[in-house]
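User: Hi! I'm working on a homework problem where we have to compare a predicted structure to a textbook description. Could you give me the structure for the chain below?
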Amino acid sequence: MAAKVEYVVLDGCIQDGNKIVKKGEVYDPPNTEVRDLLLEDGKITKRGKLDAEQAGDD
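Assistant: Happy to help. Predicted structure tokens:
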């Protein structure tokens, strides 16, 4: 069974129903359409990708 991919909010915050997810917090998109749109807009990224980008900023 494949591990579930976690996404992290990169920019601002995301409101999902009555829940607000702030920058730096883990976000679980409700479906692939929303996930793809937020990835394209640069609002979220895969959690492991964020860790790699931060390591390169040193």
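For your comparison, note the following. The chain has one domain: 7-56. The helical segments are 32-40, 47-56. Good luck with the assignment!
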